[in-house]
TrEMBL record:
Similarity remark: Belongs to the Nudix hydrolase family. NudK subfamily.
Name of the featured protein: GDP-mannose pyrophosphatase
Keywords, alphabetical: Hydrolase
Domain Nudix hydrolase as annotated: residue spans: 38-171
Gene3D superfamilies attached to this UniProt entry: Nucleoside Triphosphate Pyrophosphohydrolase
GO molecular function, one term: hydrolase activity
Keyword match Hydrolase: yes
InterPro entries documented for this protein: NUDIX_hydrolase-like_dom_sf (IPR015797), NUDIX_hydrolase_dom (IPR000086)
GO BP, sorted A to Z: nucleoside phosphate metabolic process; ribose phosphate metabolic process
Record field: catalytic activity: GDP-alpha-D-mannose + H2O = alpha-D-mannose 1-phosphate + GMP + 2 H(+)
Listed cofactors: Mg(2+)
Length: 183
């Protein structure tokens, strides 16, 4: 490792996030500071419905305070616990945010979210054989709007900048690679 941690201190904590400041020493002896956001594991779910009319994806529209705007994204989130079962988390987030349950869940990969500043893994699942039910949004998710979008429209929304969530775009790229290998 080319960087050694000299000291660390927590500068902020809430139920979802902690922020620490680390004094570090690089391989050349030069010292510096890293600010690190620590978050427990999260998941992202690609809810795919295949019908006689075509393929459809379910997206969540919600207000994102950090950018003061509503955005479309795949269902995603965490339960603020480090030892959660990834598939249980994914099934729970899907149900909470959309009311959907999946007859089949496929783990596609695990990746890091914004690892330049944040230490958080995100587990990516494909959800198929979907059944509708009642959503159970958290208090912070009271304004969620569910959209059922044809696959072609979804991809156009990525290209035209309607969908800007990097996790949604990354998950879709992972799915496309995985799907290509299934053929």
């Amino acid at each position: 490792m080319s960087i050694k941690t000299i000291s660390t201190r927590e500068v902020y904590r809430n139920p979802w996030t902690s922020v620490r400041e680390d004094v570090i020493e690089r391989a050349n002896g030069q010292r510096g500071i890293y600010g690190v956001v620590d978050k427990d594991p999260a998941c992202i779910v690609i809810p795919l419905e295949v019908t006689a009319e075509g393929e459809f994806l379910y997206l969540i529209e919600q207000f994102r305070y950090t950018v003061l705007a509503n955005h479309l994204e795949f269902p995603q989130g965490g339960w603020e616990t480090a030892d959660v079962d990834p598939e249980e988390l994914a099934r729970g987030e899907l149900r909470e945010e959309t009311g959907l349950t999946a007859g089949k869940m496929t783990h596609l990969t695990t990746f890091q979210i914004a690892y330049g500043v944040m230490n958080q893994k995100q587990v990516c699942f494909l959800a198929e054989d979907l059944k509708s039910g009642e959503s159970e949004p958290d208090a912070e998710e009271h304004d969620l709007v569910i959209h059922r979008v044809p696959l072609e429209r979804f991809e156009a929304m990525i290209l035209d900048g309607t969908i800007v969530d990097n996790c949604t775009v990354a998950a879709w790229g992972i799915y496309k690679l995985w799907r290509g290998q299934q053929r």
